Amino acid sequence: MSAARLLIRASALALVTLLAACAGGGKPKPEPLEALTPKIAATVAWTQRVDGVQFPLTVAATKGQFTVAGNDGTVMALDADSGREIWRGTAGAKLSAGVGSDGRYAAVVTRDGELVVFDQGQVKWRKPMGGRVTTAPLVAGERVFVLGVDRGVQAFDVLDGRKLWVLQRPGDPLTLAQSGVLAAFKDTLIVGQGPRMAGVDPLRGTVRWDVAVGSPRGANEIERLADLVGPPVRNGDMVCARSFQAAVGCVNAERGLLGWSRNGGGTDAIGGDAQFLFGGDASDRLTAWKAESGETAWSSDKLLYRTLSAPAVFNKSVVFGDEDGTLHWLNRETGEAQLRSTTDGGPISVQPVVSGTTMLVVTRKGGLFAFRQ
User: Fold this and answer.
1) I need a labelling partner for 148 at 20 to 30 A (CA). Which of 8, 114, 131, 237 fits?
2) How many domains does the chain have?
3) Domain residues for 84?
4) Residues 6+ apart with CB under 8 A from 329
5) Order of strands, edge to edge, in the sheet holding 326-331?
6) Is residue 257 part of a domain?
7) Is residue 130 situated within a structural domain?
8) What CATH number has the domain bearing residue 142?
9) What is the model's pTM?
10) Looking at the DSSP assignment, which residues form a beta bridge with residue 373?
């Protein structure tokens, strides 16, 4: 079995193990939805389409625009207010990860392991990565950073594709084929290295600090998978993320110290703001943690087994998508249901993204729905 297939299989088996532990077998039926009288209003401001999303897409929201990508390698930038297409390009192949953008340059990775960088829709350069990538590249400071499934990090000059450095650290026998942590914090590159969060010098590729967010536990290598899942949440000097099936925690990225960590069995990224962090566990039981201390603010089991997406905070709501293409709007302070919105019926597995007054939701069918309140 190839390394890439083993990684994918490990991820799938880990999810199956978690669900079986919760249900004693196959996935239980979703919790019936309670009758709901809408307490807020939200409308679809505009719609667009891409050619489906069957890969771990991260939507980039920068400078009043969304940059998105589809299965067929199409990449496009859309005006966040109107949905107007600003530019469109193609990677020429199906994608395994994407998209990262600084508002001008955008980067994706193909299934063949090729990094493709665009300048306003025109392909600027291509580079083979030499391994599988499932995390969207990070474009920042005139550099493109790529995190491989093997946890290796590569840095390239955004202008000419020149490789600047490689950081390869010892890892575990199995790693997670899911979006990892790769983000910028002031003059530091934040990288997930298994269950640890590392602060890396973006100019040299050297590690400045290294902090454990989760503690792997289990009887075998699959159960001990605890890689950090991205994208992370930044709140001032704190950068917070989930450790796969292990914990949720926050690191002071200025000082390189753990702020707090709480055990938790979830598998998807968290969302949040300056007051709360939000996430679901493997059964879609929702929890809100106080961002400052990690104390539980509220929890809810009213959306169990609905295969929820990672959440987004939008105004006074926290919003989750589900496998039926429904958006669930909850009061961010209490967890009370506020509204349900429909899309095209395709599963929502991509974390909704907010730019200004607009929240963009992407379905696996390729539907793009921009909501406003």
Assistant:
1) 237
2) 1
3) 57-178
4) 40, 42, 314, 317, 318, 319, 337, 338, 339, 340, 341
5) 312-314, 317-321, 326-331, 337-342
6) no
7) yes
8) 2.40.128.630
9) 0.91
10) none
